[in-house]
Amino acid sequence: MARKVFTSFHYKPDNWRASQVRNIGKIEGNSPATANRWEEVTNGGDTAIKKWIDDNMSGKSCVVLLVGENTAGRKWIKHEIKKAWDDGRGIFGIHIHNLKDSQGNQSEKGRNPFEDFDIGDKNMSSIVKCYNPPYSSSKYVYEHIEENIEDWIEKAIEIRNNQ
Question: 89 with 62: CB under 8 angstroms?
């Protein structure tokens, strides 16, 4: 049975790439917000966005952060990382820059977002994994994620449970 996960990503540039990962069929989680729904949520301000994140993260055992070119450092990505960790959820990242977008384009590799956090005297990036599929072909990147995502989820939950 697929684990219930929350997927986190930079909406506008990476929604198409995120949909590819969600459609692999090996994870179960929050349904993607449509552009109209996300606009409605964001128009409600910070309180509405936090409530949407809380509601959608509830009941999930792991957060999968899909890391695109400009994901690191974004306000709500940082909020989701902190919330996942503080709530005791497994969390990890996957670099998705080599998956093609709806126009068939790839992007530059983004910075590891876990580098923005410290856990005690360690940087979070030394604890939390951020996988970078070792291929430049979108097809092979997809297949690599498909083959490994379930193991990555279990490893993230194990890492979090041991902290």
Answer: yes
Closest C-alpha to 149, from 30, 33, 7: 7
The CA-based dihedral angle spanning residues 43, 82, 131, 14, taken in that order and rounded to the nearest 10 degrees = 0
Average pLDDT along the chain, 163 residues, taken 10 residues at a time? 86 89 73 64 88 93 96 97 97 97 95 97 98 97 96 96 92
How many helices (DSSP H) and strands (DSSP E) are in the chain?
5, 7
pTM (predicted TM-score): 0.92
Q: How far apart are CA 35 and CA 19, in angstroms?
A: 13
CA distance 66 to 20: 11
Q: CA 86, CA 54: separation in Å to the nearest integer?
A: 12
User: For residues 7 and 23, is the Cβ–Cβ distance under 8 A?
Assistant: no
What six digits make up the tokens of 52? 């949407």
Handedness of CA 50, 7, 35, 108 (dihedral sign): positive
CA angle 67, 72, 77 (to 5 degrees): 85
